């Protein structure tokens, strides 16, 4: 039987360590902010399609 190495899965290939670490210097954006920006961009594009038809 295979031995466990430090309790980590070998298939994760180090991704667990990458995503668990937090860098204080990184830019943090709220998921709500991302959704609001995406909605605003979508509304702008729809408005342009209505005002300036193909």
Describe the structure.
The chain has 54 residues and is mainly alpha-helical. Helices cover 50% and strands 0% of the residues. It has two helices and no strands. It is rod-shaped, with a radius of gyration of 22 Å. The N and C termini lie far apart (65 Å). 0% of the residues are buried. The model has no long low-confidence stretch (mean pLDDT 77).
How many β-strand stretches?
0
Shape, principal axes of CA atoms: rod-shaped
Strand content: under 5%
Low-confidence runs: none
Number of helices: 2
Q: What is the radius of gyration?
A: 22 Å
The biggest beta sheet reads: none
Counting helices, strands and paired strands, the structural category is mainly alpha
Output mean pLDDT. Answer: 77
Can you give keywords for this protein?
single chain; 54 residues; mainly alpha; 0% strand
